[in-house]
Amino acid sequence: MATRKATQRTGKSEAAVLDVDAIPRGRMVDMAYEWIEEAIVTLRLAPGSTMSELQLSEMTGFGRTPIREAIQRLAREHLIVVLPQRGLLVPPMDVSKQLRLLETRREVERLIARSAARKASAEQRAHFARLAKEFRSSARTGKDVEFVRADREFNELCLVAARNEFAEGAMRLMHGLSRRFWYYHYQEAADLPTMARLHAEVAEAIAAGEVKRAGDALDALLDNIEAFTRATVLGDRA
Q: HTH gntR-type domain spans which residues (predicted)?
């Protein structure tokens, strides 16, 4: 029987060919989810575009079952809309939804950042320190996909380190939409160096176990995101 192949993202944005049949099923779903989520966030699957499960399967090399499970996760996160009998829709940008999301995100993410600073293990703190360096590298180089990947890794690490399943559930509904919105508009404001630096400051505070500093750095990050949202989309009139 022919070996099925799939593509995997690499740190250099290149595709590595994998033997799908050798990948554990759970990991296969995660990989399919990560591939599609990044494609949506970085606009390779554009807002308003439609597709089918079969097309996603052909694009990624994964079978219909892991693709279907990945789609279910993305639908819960509002990154895909399932249209019965009609396929899948990548939802258009929604400014009013983004502003409501930011209002909610500030309260939940402050709790997560402070909790992570308080509860992170030594290994997790070392990981935060490494991510801070990656963010500062992105600030210097301006590599946007590199930043988006570091941001996703940072968000996941925060959720694990905070050890609060209720906050985790809320944040998982917001991270992908936030990254996509930023990626869509950031070039208008040349915002990458600032965003990367602010992320680095949160990561450094968590790595150092400084709870108040982590909360303050998170507030500064979200202040920037809100100002960015209003300035680039609403012309600072809201």
A: 26-93
User: Whole domain around residue 62: which residue ranges?
Assistant: 22-90
Contact 112, 159 (CB under 8 A): yes
- Sorting pLDDT into bands at 50, 70 and 90, what band is 14? very low
What tokens were used for 207?
């790595």
Contact of 194 with 67, CB cutoff 8 Å: no
Residues 75 and 107 in one domain: no
pLDDT of residue 26 exceeding 80, the answer is no
Compute the distance between CA of residue 117 and CA of residue 215 in angstroms, rounded to an integer: 9
Of 104 and 120, the structure prediction assigns the larger pLDDT to 120
Give the pTM. 0.78
pLDDT digit string (tens) for 126-150? Answer: 999 999 999 999 999 989 989 999 9
For residues 206 and 230, state if they share a domain: yes
